[in-house]
What we know:
By secondary structure, this protein is an alpha/beta fold. Helix content is 27%, strand content 24%.
Amino acid sequence: xxxxxxxxxxxxxxxxxxxxxxxxxxxxxxxxxxxxxxxxxxxxxxxxxxxxxxxxxxxxxxxxxxxxxxxxxxxxxxxxxxxxxxxxxxxxxxxxxxxxxxxxxxxxxxxxxxxxxxxxxxxxxxxxxxxxxxx
Length: 135
């Protein structure tokens, strides 16, 4: 994904995924995009419950590579202390992006999430060509 390069020009990368959309995002993380050379890399990963949260055993490695993994459950168990609801709403409550023009977003998964997130990012000043969708 050339749109993510060079890391110095795009220090912020936001990854938004739901359900099956984790596949392409996982590939991006595993092949590497210099996450450790960026100041802010976040993965907002939304699923219904813990049983549907794929690749949990890899989260620690992803974190070590520079990706802040934020699991978001829409139907969490009573003892869940993490984020709940929809990934785009969790993002809105999170720390703001310092410079949207120096950021890239990758969206993968549920089409409603993609459309909602894209509208949010555009309203915040992201460049349309830096909001990428995986298929």
